[in-house]
Amino acid sequence: xxxxxxxxxxxxxxxxxxxxxxxxxxxxxxxxxxxxxxxxxxxxxxxxxxxxxxxxxxxxxxxxxxxxxxxxxxxxxxxxxxxxxxxxxxxxxxxxxxxxxxxxxxxxxxxxxxxxxxxxxxxxxxxxxxxxxxxxxxxxxxxxxxxxxxxxxxxxxxxxxxxxxxxxxxxxxxxxxxxxxxxxxxxxxxxxxxxxxxxxxxxxxxxxxxxxxxxxxxxxxxxxxxxxxxxxxxxxxxxxxxxxxxxxxxxxxxxxxxxxxxxxxxxxxxxxxxxxxxxxxxxxxxxxxxxxxxxxxxxxxxxxxxxxxxxxxxxxxxxxxxxxxxxxxxxxxxxxxxxxxxxxxxxxxxxxxxxxxxxxxxxxxxxxxxxxxxxxxxxxxxxxxxxxxxxxxxxxxxxxxxxxxxxxxxxxxxxxxxxxxxxxxxxxxxxxxxxxxxxxxxxxxxxxxxxxxxxx
Amino acid sequence: xxxxxxxxxxxxxxxxxxxxxxxxxxxxxxxxxxxxxxxxxxxxxxxxxxxxxxxxxxxxxxxxxxxxxxxxxxxxxxxxxxxxxxxxxxxxxxxxxxxxxxxxxxxxxxxxxxxxxxxxxxxxxxxxxxxxxxxxxxxxxxxxxxxxxxxxxxxxxxxxxxxxxxxxxxxxxxxxxxxxxxxxxxxxxxxxxxxxxxxxxxxxxxxxxxxxxxxxxxxxxxxxxxxxxxxxxxxxxxxxxxxxxxxxxxxxxxxxxxxxxxxxxxxxxxxxxxxxxxxxxxxxxxxxxxxxxxxxxxxxxxxxxxxxxxxxxxxxxxxxxxxxxxxxxxxxxxxxxxxxxxxxxxxxxxxxxxxxxxxxxxxxxxxxxxxxxxxxxxxxxxxxxxxxxxxxxxxxxxxxxxxxxxxxxxxxxxxxxxxxxxxxxxxxxxxxxxxxx
Lengths: 456, 437
Description:
The complex is a heterodimer of chains A (456) and B (437).
Chain A: H1 2-6, H2 11-37, E1 57-58, E2 64-69, E3 72-75, H3 79-84, H4 86-89, H5 100-103, H6 105-108, H7 118-123, E4 128-131, H8 135-145, E5 150-156, E6 162-168, H9 190-193, H10 203-213, E7 221-224, E8 227-230, E9 233-236, E10 242-245, H11 246-251, H12 255-276, E11 284-285, E12 288-289, H13 302-309, H14 319-330, E13 334-336, E14 341-345, E15 351-354, E16 359-363, H15 366-384, E17 394-403, E18 406-416, E19 423-429, H16 438-452
Parallel strand pairs in A: 1-4
Antiparallel strand pairs in A: 1-2, 2-3, 4-14, 5-6, 5-19, 7-10, 8-9, 11-12, 13-16, 14-15, 17-18, 18-19
Helix pairs in contact in A: 8-16, 10-12, 10-15, 12-13
Chain B: H1 2-6, H2 16-24, H3 27-49, H4 57-79, H5 88-106, H6 108-133, H7 135-159, E1 161-163, E2 166-172, E3 175-177, H8 179-192, H9 201-220, H10 224-242, H11 245-265, H12 267-271, H13 288-299, H14 323-331, H15 333-355, H16 360-384, H17 402-416
Antiparallel strand pairs in B: 1-2, 2-3
């Protein structure tokens, strides 16, 4: 009999397994509750497919970008503002997946693990979000970019606040296109989800690698005849620069010099620098997944290695990622993550979230960052001219990404060194030609707007 | 009945003396515990009885009767001097009350039906505890119960009426019930009630045949959840009886092989489990129920949105198979977890009690009943939350449905049996061999 009664212990492992299951369940609720509850199928939050219970979305100056009125989402009164902020605010139905209405739907619903979505029950709406963007700066970007497609981003390289985010093509959320297939990637926020051939902006990466690996790079000179023969073909340059120093090569964006530098560095060193700068790795910022920038020269022949050094070859860069690299250079080498949200208020009026500065994985040794700042400042002072950026104390680099059979993409990346304007900017204007044209003008227009409105 | 309860002969060596001493000062404690349960129930009943600002008389009446019944039961049990070393009934009242609340919040008639079911459950519980107090009495019922069970399942197979893809209902007039629930009780009864010569192959073989018949019938009804529960319980009982791991491994391997053959020849069985761990990919078809459970139970937070304020209730089977999600959404994850811990606690009590129970019959009955409940609970709760494949079994005591509630109460009677003093029964060694089958 004793034996039989003892055999009851066989149930103990079953009880233990059951309790482990219960713990897993609790863990899953804590880890995934926000995701689950913010599903589009949640009738507490969505009415006929629209996030009708979301709180109000403001820009950093308190301008209303979206709110719920009579059970429907309504957006800003200004058409330009609606279009300029379309991709960052998103739409009520959530077709723009990186827009706040999608990416932050659980925040907008007021969900938390303790009380679930009880706030919606009590107040009829969730949390209010204040975004870091300035509506005016987005409109300035929208106007300056004109009819070109592309992306504009500005963020504070010290705090991370993403003060401008604009993507084109866009549409008026009050009047969505009936046939979105006519547009290529209309719903994509090109700042977060786009990738482009970087053109000469990639010379920043090559230069950083050179500063790290070739101690006397600053005193070296390179020769440019307008093209340089490497292996089976030529790397073509925009000009004939003759004998040219490292600094001047960057100023004048000499392809011959940078193709030679890439040869000197070799595949492994370029790969190592690229990896340290965040290439080929997924980057998340404020809950948003950026498109991965890709750089791979492991299989490239010498000619292509040269092209890769000047930003052609197969390299593709996400604009937001490039902006983060510039931010790290500006911030003494330590990168910070762009933050879309500035703060969040519960319906009871309590601030339940405040953006904090979060370091990114991009770190550049301080000495190289400092030298890079000098070189990028020299670009503006000696090449582009401070008159292109009045009062901005700007550093930067243009890029002209050559495409087969199409007009080049126009890039500008840079940052201001003004104490009261610690902002880094990226502009990509598709098929707009030289970087010193549309892209640089757009960057200036946005930065002037931010300077005028004292936004950082 | 009075005789059974009044017998009070301490027997040394089985730990019952200790139990008795404790029991003397316990009624007050259990009264206090029931008071807490009642306060909880008042809080959960009130918004249902006064939903939308008006008094719903039938619901109020149902809840009033329910609370009164709890106190009357406890008072009577105290009056007739029932020794109570564990508040099993109070836990059953607590769990049943949650189910009653949810029924009342859907339709008043559901509450009335559920109240009647709980009443029948309580009566069955009392009758079964009385029956179990005499092992001789219990032994007499073994064969008839086994025969009746198989007959019931056979009848079910003949009359099979498809409900939600399973053929496990019998409908007589406006009254429908699930035979498999009643057979669960008989399954444990028959399995446990073999005292003499536990290792005797013949008796175990008979039980094996009975088990195969039950599981097979459930499989034919496509009630895979119930079949799994029976199989698990069979393993537990067989181990308790024989202590033979090797045979059980063999049986499990054979069952696994059988299951694989079924999946091979009848692929639609495997299809039922295709959504497992992929419910979000089938959010509007095969994963509909699980995703809604996850969405809405997460929405409820720790304390819930309040009874009647949820959205899961609009989903099919919300008050039956998916009731765990409904409880979490409207009454909170904390209550959902409390329910899980109550069952774990009861299972623990059964194991502990089995160790010092006065008869192997009680030990086997209690452990297998607790195991059956825990296994069914796991299939239900982890099934609707996609930690396990969903099989469509009920949550004992809480899911709406008469037979399920009655079965749960009966299973608690088996667990209760470990607290029976050997003095209540005839000592097992002295019994006549004639009653053995």
